[in-house]
Amino acid sequence: MRIAILSRNSKLYSTRRLVEAGVARGHQVDVIDTMHCYMDITSSNPSVRYRGKPLPKYDAVIPRIGASVTFYGTAVVRQFEMMGTFSINESVAISRSRDKLRSLQLLSRKGIGLPKTGFAHHPDKISDLLKNIGGAPVVIKLLEGTQGIGVVLAETNQTATSVIEAFMGLQANILVQEFIKEAGGSDIRCLVVGDKVIAAMKRQGAEGEFRSNLHRGGSASLVKLSPEERKTAVDAANTMGLNMCGVDILRSHRGPVVMEVNSSPGLEGIEKATGKDIADMIIAHIEKRAKPNKTKTQGKG
Fold it and tell me: Quick one: pLDDT band at residue 298, thresholds 50, 70, 90?
């Protein structure tokens, strides 16, 4: 097979591992910088051009699109879909998962466990917004934030009110969520491929840090999932329409609750924590699924 990885940096761990796994399984794998692609969108023969030349026909693409380039990156993925190329994650699914509000609304509609969440731009009564989700402590998130940036823990209603007012002054859209104290500053990253959780790790925040992101000093360790946690992760992935993703869940007193569904999960932390060859499993999934014109969103907006 001929596989394209849409990534801005071929030296990144995840990109490099996917290339290694694909080559090891006998495929030709090319890394393509998404932002250097351009497209002929009016032709009856859609194509993607790259650095002055038309790209060859690919059997599959693996989008590794950063949050800051979601709009253009998904347009490139959509163009590949129009050409009949299989994408492990389709453009519509990526866009859906990147919209925090939309993703939470979709998960809620499917009855998947979530923390109590309020969405606001300029509520007349901040006190009512806080009361509606159970009061402080609460986690306040910028709707456009990523990787723990723009996330604040407010331990009192007074602090929460001050932070919300500050965000409002910036004309920012915010989510206000209950703080799951019993999680103890940890979460569980479930790596879902197809309809199965193929690996999971527990991420523990650094001392004094409620965010468990590894690049913020958190640590990763092997974790055993309950059947309910596995089902929650797979259901969340299916709701987003993602064939491959990371589902972040917290262990609460009322069961697992989903914090986020990541369409471009990093592989380094989870491969090292579990000892599994995640990249190989992803390529194996593509081998089973990649067929011409199988893209669900082909020809759709």
Answer: very low
* b/e map 42-63, b = 16+ CB within 10 Å: eeeebbbebeeeebeebbbbbb
Question: How many C-beta atoms surround the C-beta of residue 246 within 10 A?
Answer: 24
**Residue 195 and residue 174 in contact, taking contact as beta carbons nearer than 8 Å:** no
Residue pair 173/144 in contact by the 8 Å Cβ criterion: yes
| DSSP bridge partners of 142 | 174
The first and second tokens of residue 225, run together, are: 């999932």
Counting other chains too, the contacts that 24-28 makes at CB distance below 8 Å and 24 or more residues apart are 24/280, 25/280, 25/283, 25/284, 25/287, 27/1, 27/2, 27/3, 27/283, 28/1, 28/2, 28/3
Using one digit for the tens of pLDDT, what is the confidence trace for 69-109? Answer: 999 999 999 999 999 999 999 999 999 999 989 999 999 99
- Domains of the chain: residue spans and CATH: 2-93 (3.40.50.20), 97-112+182-276 (3.30.470.20), 117-179 (3.30.1490.20)
Q: What is the pTM of this model?
A: 0.88
In order of 104, 164, 186, the CA distances from 138 in angstroms are 17, 11, 16
Is residue 138 within 8 A of residue 77, CB to CB? The reply is no
To 10 degrees, what angle do helices 70-82 and 91-98 make?
160
CB–CB of 147/100 below 8 Å?
no
Tokens of 164: 């919300």
Measured between alpha carbons, how far is 77 from 92 in angstroms, rounded to an integer?
9
Q: Give the integer Cα–Cα distance in Å for 209 and 198.
A: 28
Instruction: List CB contacts of 95: < 8 A, sequence separation 6 or more.
Output: 70, 74
Are β-strands 60-63 and 86-87 bridged in parallel, bridged antiparallel, or unpaired? Answer: parallel
